[in-house]
What we know:
Rossmann fold; globular; eight-stranded mixed β-sheet; alpha/beta
Amino acid sequence: xxxxxxxxxxxxxxxxxxxxxxxxxxxxxxxxxxxxxxxxxxxxxxxxxxxxxxxxxxxxxxxxxxxxxxxxxxxxxxxxxxxxxxxxxxxxxxxxxxxxxxxxxxxxxxxxxxxxxxxxxxxxxxxxxxxxxxxxxxxxxxxxxxxxxxxxxxxxxxxxxxxxxxxxxxxxxxxxxxxxxxxxxxxxxxxxxxxxxxxxxxxxxxxxxxxxxxxxxxxxxxxxxxxxxxxxxxxxxxxxxxxxxxxxxxxxxxxxxxxxxxxxxxxxxxxxxxxxxxxxxxxxxxxxxxxxxxxxxxxxx
Length: 301
Ligand SMILES: NC(=O)c1ccc[n+]([C@@H]2O[C@H](COP(=O)([O-])OP(=O)(O)OC[C@H]3O[C@@H](n4cnc5c(N)ncnc54)[C@H](O)[C@@H]3O)[C@@H](O)[C@H]2O)c1
């Protein structure tokens, strides 16, 4: 008789990101314990994680007790993260990595004063974690090399493409790049240069397509022809000396109105857009040879 040891993942927070992580771990054969104080937790798991080995618990200490790996995806507020990680530190074995999905909070800040700081690391996914290959792995100054290695290995086992940053910085790398693009997109709409739908099309039909196949540096190499990026920098980029401006944060209302008019709001619009995104993402992943993500019954919800 053969015995299989099933690893246990504790998923903290059952929102957009936590549910997607839970499905990913579950589909990879992990037993999943999901903790969230939301009163409809069991209904959410029944709806989104049917057929997987998943249990719900409102009590974080209970959910963490047998965990071999923790993926925290609770609210992006430092006080809540500190509270959650204090409980996780006290109720997990001392070899268990405590990863946070945080989009921008520094690991050193989340881990400050926490006795398990050496086990804490950022494992930042892009939405939806099930489909997007990248996970940014960001150690804080106290994170042990062993914890980073273990997080990298777990994400690889899930079919992800983890990239380890050399050191922490607010927003990490992905969201710093995204912030520049989003700020400029808002600025251009506010300035009346382009409308929301055309801006999205412009990115999809040019920058997005390019960056799905080659990164910005590789693009620079090709943009310069046989003489490479050095030529591009000297002859083209050197002329781009204009100021790029900044969006008016007080004037976001008009931009948000236009976004809502363009794409709609509410459950039906969300489901339609999520399905479109997921179908397109799967098609691109397949063509580019990224690891096949697990098939899911209700992708995008
Ligand atoms: N939404 C994104 O695109 C995205 C992408 C990458 C990373 N992230 C990060 O992932 C994390 C979760 O984001 P989200 O968009 O899923 O948020 P969300 O608001 O959809 O979900 C957060 C969940 O945490 C739960 N929660 C509240 N207090 C809790 C507690 N004490 N213990 C356990 N659960 C608790 C809430 O009930 C909610 O279900 C954040 O840190 C965010 O920065 C988000």
